[in-house]
Every structure is written in structure tokens, then in C-alpha cells.
Structure prediction request, 159 residues.
Amino acid sequence: MSAPRRRRSIDEEVCDILNADSTADLRWCDSPIERLMLAALIECRFNTVKSRAGIGVTTLFQQARVATDDGTYKIDFALVRPLPSRSIRLAVELDGYEFHHATRQLVDRDNRRTRALAKRGWTVVRYSGSEITKDAGRCALDAAAIVIDLLDAYERRRR
Prediction:
């Protein structure tokens, strides 16, 4: 059995890009926390993340619309990586208190939305407004780490 490979750091995994095809635009942000998160995603150079195997690129989309059995949902940020047999899809949702946690009905609505997206093959990660305000950069790096973990899991299944 071979020795396990050294896990690369997020900084080693996240590549320089912000290419001409980027959909990143502060004007499309619906809230101050979305502007903070977009700036953090760009700062950590996460319009594209490369895997060690070099399979495709992960692209950042803003306000992506996703059709589900329960209707069409708009995702704050979608990180999508096409792969040979399927795509890795990470939905990054930013939850300000007023629109997501002020009532039980709002929490229930978000829970239904998360389940509907999961049925369509999305991994959903949520950050509260206070998390974004406190350290948007850490949240962006966390999202990058999740994509890298999903890629690692994909590569392990391929072996």
C-alpha cells in the first residue's frame, strides 16, 4: 500500500484567475453581505479552482437560477465543476437574519429549499450574515475547501 499523499493547502489549491468569462459583478449583489462575500471569493481567487488531476475548472456564478420540483430557486453563489460522469455543484447561500431567521416560517422555507436543491444534486452550504460580516474571507476559503473535498471524494471513487 502506498503512503497517503500530502493534503495540499487551500492556498495551493486555489489558483489565480478572474478570467474574462467571469460572471462576477458587484452590481448583481442583492445585499451588503453578498457584496462582502463576492469580494472575498474574488480575493481568494476563486472564480476557478483546479484539481490535482486537472479535470476541468470550477466556475463561480452569481444569482444562478435552479429549477426543482418545488419551483425555481435563485442561489446567491453557485460553484460548478463539470466532471466526466456528473458535475460538482455547491450552492453558497448567505442568510441575513431579517430574510432567513426572523420567523420559524422563514427557517422552514429555507429548509425546504435546501432539500429541493439536494434532490437536484446540489451540496448546499449556508453562512449567516454575522459570519460574513465578521470574516467573509474565512467563509470564502471554507467554500473553497468544500469544493476541494468534493473533488477529492470524486477522485477516490474513480480509483
Q: What stands out?
A: The radius of gyration is 16 Å. Confidence is low (pLDDT under 50) at residues 5-22, 47-55. The chain has one domain: 10-158.
